[in-house]
Backbone:
């Protein structure tokens, strides 16, 4: 488990959302009109999670290790 930038998260990673782990199904970039970007994490067992691009989030790679 490690804190990673949202840009580094990929499909299959586990992310912690309010203390509960969820598997990432897909990662998408969402551009805002103000020039900012969000990263949308599509999760297998709950609604998508939008986070600011570059924010840090708790991630586990399920034995694959964090690179």
Residues:
């Amino acid at each position: 488990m490690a804190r990673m930038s949202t840009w580094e998260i990929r499909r299959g990673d586990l992310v912690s959302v309010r203390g509960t782990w969820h598997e990432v199904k897909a990662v998408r970039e969402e551009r805002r009109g103000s020039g900012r970007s969000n990263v949308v994490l599509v999760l297998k067992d709950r609604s998508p999670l939008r986070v600011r691009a570059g924010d840090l989030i708790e991630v586990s790679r399920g034995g694959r290790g964090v690179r």
Observations:
- The chain has a mean pLDDT of 89.
